Structure formats: C-alpha cells, structure tokens
Amino acid sequence: MVAVTVVVTRDLLKATMLFAIYSLTIAGLFATLDAGDVALTEAAVGAGISTVLILAVLALVPRHEKRQAGHSLPALAIVTVTGAALVYASFDLPQFGHPDNPVQQHLAPYFIEQTYPDMGIPNMVAAVLASYRSIDTMGEAVVILTAGIAVYALLSPAPRRRQRRREHDS
Amino acid sequence: MKDNAILVVVARFLIPLMMLFGLYVQFHGEYSPGGGFQAGVLFAAAWILFVFIYGLETGLRIIPQRVIYTLACLGVLLYAFIGMLGVILGGNFLDFHPLLDAPRAAQQAGIILVEFGVGVTVASVVMLFFLLFARRRADSEAAGLDPDAADDVETDRQ
C-alpha cells in the first residue's frame, strides 16, 4: 500500500516520507525474522540517512514531478509478463525456512559450527563479513569510497550550466 | 535553527547518545547486531543532526572538509593495510592469524580493526554526501537560482 503510493504520487516530498515509512516497516519485518544486522542497517540507512540525502537532493530540484504525457503499452506488456513469470516461478521455491533447503545445507552449517571455535565470537554475521568474506567487505568499502568520489566530482564545480540557461531564457 | 529551544535541548540530549550508540555498535559488533557500516551511518547521522541545528559552518569547524576527505581514504587504507599485514607477517592477504599468537584473539583483533576501517570510511563518505548537497544548495541560492522558484515557473506553464 505504502509502496504503491510512493510510485503513484507526484509530490516528491510525500514520496520521500512514505519511502522512509516503507523502509522502517521493512526494518521491522527483518527484526521479526531475527535478522538483527540487516534490520539495523535498513533502519539506519534506508529510513534514516537515505531519507536525509533524498531531502538534500529535493532542496536542489523542484518539488513536483513533471507530468509525462501518455503511457507506453509495450512497456506495460513486458512488465506484466515478467511479473507473472516471476510469480509463477515463486511457486517452485522450497518452503520458507525449511531445514532441508539447499541454502541451509551448503555453507550455513559450516559457518554455524566453525564460527565459535575459529573466532570465539557469537555474531556469525560479523564473522562472515569481516573474516570469512573479508575481501568482499573490502570491495564494499572501496565502492563506498568510489561513490563519495563520484558525488564529489559531480557536485563540487560551481552550478554554471543552469545559470547560463536561465540567462538564455530571460 | 539555533533559536528553537526545543530543538536545541532535544538535539543536545540526542547527539551524544547517538554517538555513544554508534561506538557501541562499532565495537560491540562481534557480540550483538552491528558492525562498521551501521556504526558509520549512525555517527554520520549524529553529525548531520548537529549541522541541522547549528549550521554547516559550525559543523565544519568540528570536522573540517579536508579531514573528511582524509578519513574517507584512511578507512579503506586501514582495511587494506591490515590485509597486507597478514602478507608481511607470513600469511595470505586478509589472513588475520599471523597478527597475534592466539588464533581466536588474532581473528577478533583483525575483525575489530577492519570493521573500524569500514566504519571510518562510511561515516566520512555519508558526511561528505550531505556536505556536498548542502553546499550545492547554498551555491545555487548564492547564484540567484531558487529551486522552488523554478517549481513555480513549471506550474505556471501547465
């Protein structure tokens, strides 16, 4: 319901606020699924920081979305077919949370059994992130730094082009 | 927003609490949910709240822009350095076992150090995002461009 309103509304401020509520709901869902790390991330990043950053962007752009004339019928057809195929495929998924699922059989038992003898720490997520899969995490840190550099490259020059267009208009 | 007493009192109460919680999430991440990423975001959120209340210039006096750039790079470099330390001391890249004699303590030390690197990078990059967007807004206003005015022009045309 909230997600549909986010897509439909043309008031970007309203969409941002609803998006924050949506993120908070998802964070609550993760918390009820006992995924504390993911819930904390979703609450801090999804509901907190990304809302603030989107608001900072909204301070730079007009508040209302431009009205686009007409709808693309082929796009609607493709989206419907893809969505139907995905829903159909979801019927073949193994039962949620069942211990015989492939995802529970492959690496999870190793991590559950070995984390405490290897590291002596109870949080398996931290062990997997920082030790078993630490090159992945290093890649993530580099990605974040790259994102920072990209935003810096985009936003640090003075706002010149829009100014020129304004002069052209008047 | 420095003049609004309610905001200032609430923020004064909240900002230390947020930073403390950030540090807790950072250094207690092996025992409870959390880690460098979440801690960095929480720490940056505390700074952003400070900037909301006291203004960007005051916020930059506490953490200058140059320090933010340096910290963003230092976090990643700390991570890579810990990885290289494993190689120098005779192991594989990002292998924590050679760091200390006791294998569990070595793993824990490695995890804490690399998570600290991640936390520093995430905190400074989020601060940098906010700083750059806020600067941009100030620059556009200084250049005589009001984004809200552009909005009005848009609605006039319709």
Major β-sheet annotation of chain B: none
- In DSSP terms (H or I, runs of 4 or more residues), the helix count of chain B works out at 6
Largest interface: A-B, 53 and 62 residues
* Backbone CA Rg of chain B: 21 Å
Number of strands of chain B: 0
Structural class of chain A: mainly alpha
Inertia-based shape of chain B? elongated
Shape of chain A: extended
Our estimate of the beta-strand percent of chain A is under 5%
What does this molecule look like?
- The complex is a heterodimer of chains A (about 170) and B (about 160).
- Chain A is mainly α.
- Chain A contains nine helices and no strands.
- Chain A has helices at about 1-10, 10-30, 35-60, 75-90, 100-105, 110-120, 125-130, 135-155, 160-170.
- In chain A, helix 1 (about 1-10) runs antiparallel to helix 2 and helix 2 runs antiparallel to helix 3.
- Chain B is mainly alpha-helical and about 160 residues long.
- Helices cover about 80% and strands about 0% of the residues of chain B.
- In chain B, helix 1 runs antiparallel to helix 2.
- Chain B is elongated, with a radius of gyration of 21 Å.
- Chains A and B meet through helix 3, helix 7, helix 8 and helix 9 of A and helix 2, helix 4, helix 5 and helix 6 of B.
Highlighted features:
heterodimer; A: 170 residues; mainly alpha; extended; B: 158 residues
Give the topology, please.
The complex is a heterodimer of chains A (170) and B (158).
Chain A: H1 2-8, H2 12-32, H3 36-58, H4 73-90, H5 102-105, H6 108-119, H7 124-132, H8 134-155, H9 161-169
Helix pairs in contact in A: 1-2, 2-3, 7-8
Chain B: H1 5-27, H2 36-54, H3 56-62, H4 65-88, H5 103-142, H6 147-157
Helix pairs in contact in B: 1-2, 2-3, 2-5, 4-5
